[in-house]
Structures are given as structure tokens and as C-alpha cells.
Design brief:
The complex is a heterotrimer of chains A (about 250), B (about 290) and C (about 325). Chain A has about 250 residues and is an alpha/beta fold. Chain A contains 11 helices and 10 strands. Chain B has 12 helices and 4 strands; from the N terminus they run αααααβββααααβααα. In chain B, helix 1 packs parallel to helix 6. Chain B is mainly α. The chains are: A alpha/beta (about 250), B mainly alpha (about 290), C mainly alpha (about 325).
Chain lengths: ~250, ~290, ~325
């Protein structure tokens, strides 16, 4: 593992905070006969937004799918709040407090907005209503689309619904894959707001190609290339380091 | 006019029978993406169980209950042993369920023999009511009522219950349902078992309808159910019902004018035409996975 | 190492072939020739199915449709001509053309739908043919559920003549099919099995290849059905039955899919096993239900060793 000096110091910083929510240690993953992840290590701090950056095909999506238990063959350590979760089934991982938003937002085309939220609001009666009302206060748009089917929502609405679903699940960690893809700038703004709000409750692991968006809301960054995490640190450092941006992100 | 109405009622009752078989096939396919080739064997096992229990107890209710429960149990075992280890591998699932069809169809011959056997029918189902010259066969009324009941209850279950909500979400995207913390594999088992139970219920009623059962009824009826499902669109709930109506009615009218073997060919022809011109079925959506 | 292995297998093949040619001249009881004939007919049938299943990756549950078409073509022609060779050949040609036509129709459906659907459609078509063959209305043509006796030309009844005819057709078909799967078209089929959209993006007409593989497999299955008739000399509707399609599937899977040799091995194993089990079955009642054992074996093999015997042997050889 190659970590830069500054990154090591960063790890020292983290020790002062509460322990990391999610830790990946030298994770390898295989899809078919391809060895996609070849040593991914990262940490997501409590109530922080961590962004995973890298070129297309670097292994970002495979990383988050591996965290969710959706990649059948993997090795290494994945710990959620100190507990090993790598060999658990996806539903068990989700029940331990991870909300996952895949690249297409994971919206069900035939279910209404209301049904999407009912699907994940496990409790009954009062607690359920409370959770729903809280979310609707945060996302007033969704109230208007309440009876609309998932297939009829706009790209922005879909992402909002996916984030709202994570709120209703009361997940401690939101893992979200390229939410800004294909969204109009105004929707990207709203999305960023909602992710920042999520920080009040928990942590976010964000995969993003939109560097501008990532740089504005993320606290920490990880760079992934050829299936390996090669750099990490505070977002501010990356923003300052034009050369690094150019080399690995082609900006 | 009398002929028309008589054919209409007879078509409706075969439609109901096809529906009971096709509903389970279609729902299992929609959720599990599995084309279950063992379905016809479960139908036959349900039929023989019903016949046997009726012989013992002379109670149609008990016969229906026993047949349906046995079908559900068979479905549960099949899902656990054959399907579960092979999700994602359609080839293996198709081959093993066909193997199971073969084994079950042969095994039923051990206690009941390879030939057709008569089925006891309770007295209240004998004969027909005459309504203005139109014969309304009592068994047919039973079949149509059960078919409508199953369709209605299924609709309520899918749209008004939590399990139904999970099933509908799973039909759209099973992986995502799982990633939301819902143990969808258990729902798979339940749905598959329920589908098998419906097929077995169909078997019990088929015994009443035909007054006889034979081990090779399974294949013929399963093929008709497949045709229904293809015509209606795999995984489409109401499409299956409409498909059953179409195939049942066309069959009834065709058999009045054509020899029965040709009717089977007519059904296959309908299926071939649908597959060539609208592979997703009349009410299905694009992107058929199998 | 590899070269020595090839030499070894060539030597084995030559010895086996020579043995098969020579043995009937020394010892040829009727039961043995008949058994060998059944094995060879099923071997060709299974090979035709391997083309579809093993090479092109297509699951059909109705290969028996072609087997039955071939069988009935010969049976009907033999009755019409009273066993005259000319009529018989005419019937054979008609059977092959009919099989090709059905292959064309099925191939067209195949190009429109995915795996499970096609299995279902082919099963339905073979089942319809079974019903038609047993239909009372067609009794004058097909003999209904009693079937038709096949009049075999006299010269084929002399000693092992039928045996040698079947042997020659089998070897010839094997060579033709072997060349076929090694040809550029064969490579495209295998490519289709692995990744259809990729083959399509390379500019191949996937539709044409799918239709072609189904036509060729159907024609060879029809020839196999004809050979079978020369051995068992009666055509019954059961020729179209699911159990025959399943037999082909089982032979290919036992022997190893995508090998062409595997299905032959599978046919030997399965026909011998059926022969033995059905004769034991008359004394041990439980074994009279040996079809159940076959079904269970089929399920277990599919789940445990989808590569089959030959494939597994290859794997073992590779690992040594």
C-alpha cells in the first residue's frame, strides 16, 4: 500500500475523532474472470462526506457494490462500525444501517413515490408517520409527486427520492454512486444540499465524476486508479493540488 | 345463440383452469426470473392428492385443502433444492426444473399407475342448470368462481399488503429490494410455493372438471399455461388473466369446429405468432429476461 | 506432453473404430447388433443436439420433433413402397427437407426470443406433433396411437448390413459435423454462446447463424430418427415424446457438451443403462421405475458437473 506522508498524518488526525464508520482494508474483488479491485483501502469518518474519485473504469462502482455485498467474490476486510460485514448478504448489510443508491438511483418504475417510502419504513403507526413527515419536510418536491410512479419521475426527482429513502431508513451511512450524472445544474445544487443535510444524521460515501460538486461538499477524498486506492487526504488538499487533479482525474 | 353461450361458458371455465396454472408461472417468472418447467407435475400431484383425499373422506373441501397444501410444500422443496443454488443461472434452472418435472411425473405412476383413473365428484357438482336453453354446468361454475376469487385476492394481496408491495418492487428490481434491507430470498420461496399451490389447486379442480386424471395431463396443461403466459406477457398480472381468457375462449370455439388435436396446434400457432410479432406478450413490457 | 496426448487419443480412436468394423464379422448375435444400432442412432441424435446445446448454447426441449419427423418419413415411405429402396430414399429426402423447414421456423422464433422461451416453444411444437401423430383423424397416414411398421429393404436384413450402414452414416456425419464446428461458422456459434451482442457488433448476422444452426441440427436429428427406424422397425407417436428430447439432453450432458465425442459416449452409457435397467426391472419391481433414477441423475449432473464426462476428463487432463 502506498500512502503519501500527508495522508498518514491525516490518519493521525482521525484518531482524535470518533472511530470511522466504515473501514475497507486491502479489498480485492472479482467480476467473472476479471480481477477488478486490487487493493482498495479507505475509511469513512462519522458525520463526514467522503468522496471516491477516479477515471471511468477505475473501480469506483465495483467498490461500492462490494461494500453492499453485491459482488460475489471478494477478499480483504470491510468493517462497519467495527464489525466485519464482507461475507454478509446485501439485505443484512443494509439492515445494519447502510443505505445504497446505485448509479440509476435504484427507483422502482412501477411503484409510486409513496410506495417507495412505505417499502422502507418498517415501523408501524406513529413512528412510520413521523419518519415520513420529517422526510417530506426536507423534500417538499416529493410531496407533489406523491402518487407518481417511479418511471414517471425526472432524473432529479429520482435522486431526491433515493436520498429521502435513505433518510426514512434511518441509515447511518449513505453510499451513493454518481448522483449528479445527467442532472441539470439546479438539481445538482438541491442534491448537494440534501447530502449536506444527511451529514447531520450520519456519514456519506460518495462516488462522483463531477469534481466541482465533490469538492464543494466533501470532507475527505480517496483517489482510485486501476482498482487500487492510490491517494487520500482532506478535500482541501486535492483542491489545492492542480497537478494531482490533472494526473488522475484529467482535469 | 344457445350454442354461442354454451361455448362461452365452457371457454370461461377452461380459461379459469389455465389461469390457476398460469398465474403461478407468471408471478414466479416476474419475481424470480425462473421459467418453472416442473409446474405441470405439481398440477398433476395436486390432482391425484385431491382425488385420493376425496376417496377417503368424501369431502371436496378437504380434497382441495390437501391438494393445495401438498402443492405448496412441493414448491417450497423445489425452490430450496433446485432454484436457490442457481439464481442467475437460467440454463441450470430451466434444466433442473424440467428434470424435476420428469421425475415427479414418473413418480406419480408408482402409487396410481400410468393409465387414466376416474375421479369422484360430489353429488352437488353433478349435472347442469338449464337457463333458457343454455346448459350451465355446475363444475364450470365452481371453476370460474375459484378463478375469479384467486384473481381478486391476488390483486388485493399485491396492491394492499406489505408482502405484495415487496413482490411488486422485486419484479422491478430484486437486487435493489435486497439492498434496501429486505430479505427477498425468503419472499422468493414464499411466492414460488404459492404459485405451486395454485397449480395444485388447479389440478384438484381439473380432476373435478374432467372426472378423470392421468399422469400425462401435466405436460399438456403446462404447455397451455405457458401459452397463456406468453400471450399475456410474462410477469404481467392482468396480462395473464387476459391471456387465459383469450386462449380459453379461442380453444372452446375452435374445438366446436375443429378436431381436438388441431385445437392444440391452434394454441401453439397463436403462441408462435405472438412470439414472432410481439415477443414481450400482449401486455408485457420490453426486455424479457429469459 | 500435449503432442503425446494427441497421439494417444488418435491411437485409441483408431483401435476403437477398427474394433467396431471388425467385430460383427466374428461375433454378431441379433440382440447385440440391434443394441449397437440403437446406440448409433441415439449417438447421432445426441450429436445433433450437441450442435445446438453444446456449441450454440441453445436450450431446446423439443429435439424429438425432428427425430420423429425422420422416423415417420421413413415409416410412411416404406409402407407406401412396400420396402422399395427408391421410395425409401424419396421418403428420407422428404423427411430431411421437412426437418429443415421446421428448423427454419423454429430458428426464426429462436432469433426473436431468449433461452427459456425457446425451450418452451420447442417443447410445445414436439408435443403438438405427438398429438397429431396419435390423432384418429390422421390414422390412415400415421397409424394413430398404434404407430406404423417399417418395412426394411431385404438386403439390409442380411447379417450385419444394417449395422454397417448405420456405422457408415454415423462416421460420415461425425466428420461433417466436426468440420462444421471447426469452420468459421462454428466459431461464430461458440462466440454467440459466450457473448451474443459482441458477435453482433462484430458485424455477424446473428439471426442467420441461429436459423442455420437450428436447421442443420434438425436435419441431422431427422437422419438419426431414420436410422433408428431401420433398427426398431416401428414408428410410434412416442418418438416425438419429451422423454426422447430429454434423452438427447441427458446424453449430451453426461458425455460433455460442446465436444461431439461426448454425446456418443453419453449415448453408449445411456442406451446400455436403459437396456440393462429395463431387463432387471422385470425381476426387481422398484427398478421398473428406472426413468425416475434417470431424471434424478440428470438433475444431479446438471447441478454438480455441467461440463459432463468429456468436459470433466478434459479438465482433469489439463490439470495433470
Amino acid at each position: 500500500m502506498v500512502y503519501t506522508r500527508s495522508a498518514t498524518e491525516k490518519t493521525g488526525d482521525q484518531a482524535n475523532d470518533s472511530p470511522p464508520v466504515l473501514v475497507l482494508e486491502n479489498v480485492h474483488a472479482y467480476v467473472g474472470s476479471f480481477h477488478i479491485l486490487q487493493g482498495v483501502s479507505l475509511q469513512v469518518r462519522d458525520r463526514h462526506i467522503t468522496v471516491l474519485l477516479g477515471r471511468n473504469g477505475a473501480g469506483k462502482t465495483t467498490t461500492v457494490r462490494t461494500i453492499m455485498g453485491l459482488v460475489p467474490r471478494s477478499t480483504g476486510g470491510i468493517r462497519l462500525a467495527g464489525q466485519e460485514i464482507r461475507s454478509l448478504p446485501p439485505d443484512e448489510i443494509a439492515r445494519r444501517g447502510v443505505a445504497y443508491v446505485p448509479e440509476d438511483a435504484g427507483i422502482f418504475p412501477h411503484l409510486t413515490v409513496a410506495e417507495h417510502l412505505m417499502l422502507v419504513s418498517g415501523g408501524n403507526g406513529a413512528s412510520r408517520t413521523a419518519a415520513l413527515e420529517e422526510v417530506l419536510a426536507l423534500f417538499p418536491d416529493l410531496k407533489q409527486a406523491w402518487r407518481k410512479r417511479g418511471g414517471a419521475l425526472s432524473g432529479g426527482q429520482r435522486q431526491m427520492l433515493a436520498v429521502a429513502r435513505a433518510f426514512v431508513m434511518r441509515a447511518g451511512l449513505l453510499v451513493i454512486d454518481e448522483p449528479s450524472k445527467g442532472l441539470a445544474p439546479v438539481m445538482v445544487e438541491r442534491l448537494m444540499e440534501s447530502l449536506l443535510r444527511f451529514k447531520d444524521h450520519g456519514s456519506v460515501l460518495l462516488v462522483e465524476q463531477n469534481f466541482l460538486m465533490a469538492s464543494r461538499i466533501s470532507d475527505d477524498f480517496y483517489l482510485i486508479d486501476h482498482g487500487t486506492t492510490i491517494r487520500h487526504g482532506a478535500m482541501a488538499e486535492l483542491v489545492a493540488d492542480r497537478e494531482l487533479q490533472h494526473r488522475y482525474l484529467g482535469i | 345463440m344457445e350454442t354461442f353461450l354454451t361455448l362461452l361458458f365452457s371457454g370461461l371455465s377452461t380459461a379459469a383452469l389455465y389461469y390457476l396454472l398460469a398465474a403461478g408461472l407468471s408471478l414466479s417468472f416476474g419475481l424470480l426470473r425462473v421459467l418453472n418447467f416442473a409446474h405441470g407435475a405439481v398440477f398433476v400431484w395436486g390432482g391425484y392428492t385431491g382425488m385420493f383425499v376425496y376417496q377417503l373422506t368424501h369431502s371436496l373441501a378437504l380434497a382441495v385443502l390437501a391438494g393445495t397444501l401438498l402443492g405448496g410444500a412441493l414448491g417450497w422443496v423445489l425452490e430450496r433444492t433446485l432454484l436457490r443454488p442457481a439464481y442467475g443461472n437460467i440454463v441450470v434452472q430451466v434444466l433442473t426444473t424440467l428434470g424435476a418435472f420428469y421425475v415427479l411425473s414418473e413418480a406419480i405412476k408408482i402409487p396410481f399407475g400410468p393409465d387414466q383413473v376416474g375421479v369422484g365428484v360430489p353429488a352437488f357438482l353433478h349435472g347442469a342448470w338449464m337457463l333458457r336453453g343454455v346448459a350451465v354446468v355446475k363444475v364450470n361454475v365452481l371453476l370460474v368462481s375459484v378463478g375469479l376469487l384467486v384473481w381478486g385476492l391476488g390483486l388485493v394481496w399485491l396492491t394492499r399488503t406489505r408482502l405484495g408491495l415487496i413482490v411488486r418492487a422485486g419484479i422491478d428490481n430484486p437486487e435493489m429490494v435486497m439492498a434496501l434491507g429486505i430479505p427477498i430470498r425468503r419472499v422468493f420461496t414464499a411466492v414460488f410455493a404459492a404459485g405451486a399451490a395454485l397449480a395444485a389447486l388447479g389440478g384438484v379442480l381439473a380432476g373435478q372438471y374432467f372426472g378423470a386424471l392421468s399422469p400425462d395431463m401435466g405436460l399438456q396443461n403446462m404447455l397451455n399455461a405457458f401459452i397463456v403466459v406468453v400471450v399475456g406477457g410474462l410477469g404481467s398480472y392482468n396480462g395473464t388473466a387476459v391471456g387465459a381468457l383469450l386462449v380459453g375462449l379461442i380453444g372452446a370455439f375452435a374445438s366446436y369446429y375443429l378436431p381436438s388435436q388441431i385445437v392444440g396446434a391452434v394454441n401453439v400457432l397463436i403462441m408462435a405468432l405472438v412470439l414472432i410479432f410481439r415477443p414481450e406478450g400482449l401486455f408485457g413490457e420490453k426486455e424479457v429476461v429469459v | 506432453m500435449k503432442k503425446r496426448g494427441r497421439l494417444f487419443w488418435t491411437a485409441v480412436s483408431v483401435l476403437v473404430l477398427a474394433g467396431l468394423v471388425v467385430f460383427p464379422t466374428m461375433w454378431a448375435p441379433v440382440w447385440l447388433l440391434s443394441l449397437a444400432g440403437q446406440i448409433m442412432a441415439f449417438a447421432l441424435f445426441a450429436m445433433s443436439f450437441d450442435l445446438l446445446f453444446g456449441y450454440a448454447g441453445v436450450i431446446s426441449f423439443g429435439q424429438a420433433a425432428f427425430w420423429g419427423i425422420g422416423g415417420y418419413a421413413v415409416a410412411i415411405a416404406s409402407r407406401a413402397g412396400g420396402g422399395a429402396i427408391a421410395t425409401l430414399l424419396l421418403g428420407a429426402v422428404a423427411g430431411i427437407l421437412l426437418a429443415a423447414a421446421l428448423g427454419l421456423v423454429e430458428g426464426f422464433i429462436l432469433s426473436r426470443v431468449k433461452a427459456g422461451y425457446f425451450a418452451m416453444v420447442t417443447l410445445a411444437i414436439s408435443q403438438i406433433l405427438l398429438l397429431l401423430a396419435s390423432s384418429q383423424n390422421l390414422r390412415p397416414l400415421t397409424g394413430g396411437s398404434d404407430g406404423l411398421n417399417v418395412y426394411v429393404p431385404r438386403f439390409l436384413l442380411v447379417g450385419p448390413a444394417t449395422y454397417y450402414l448405420l456405422f457408415a452414416v454415423l462416421v460420415l456425419s461425425f466428420v461433417v459435423l466436426y468440420r462444421f464446428v471447426r469452420s468459421p461458422a462454428g466459431l461464430v456459434w461458440r462466440g454467440m454462446r459466450e457473448n451474443e451482442s459482441r458477435i453482433e457488433s462484430l458485424g455477424y448476422n446473428v439471426l442467420a447463424y441461429k436459423v442455420a444452426v437450428n436447421v442443420v441440427a434438425g436435419m441431422f436429428a431427422a437422419v438419426a430418427g431414420m436410422l433408428y427406424m431401420l433398427v426398431i422397425q416401428i414408428a410410434t407417436p412416442e418418438l416425438f415424446g419429451l422423454s426422447n428430447s430429454l434423452d438427447a439432453l441427458l446424453m449430451v450432458i453426461i458425455g460433455g457438451a460442446g465436444t461431439l465425442v461426448g454425446p456418443v459416449v453419453g449415448a453408449v452409457i445411456l442406451v446400455l443403462a436403459e437396456h440393462e435397467l429395463s431387463s432387471i426391472g422385470s425381476s426387481v419391481p422398484f427398478l421398473s421405475h428406472w426413468l425416475i433414477l434417470f431424471g434424478l441423475m440428470f438433475i444431479l449432473i446438471v447441478m454438480a458437473a455441467p461440463r459432463g464426462l468429456m468436459g470433466t476428463l478434459d479438465k482433469i487432463r489439463d490439470s495433470i
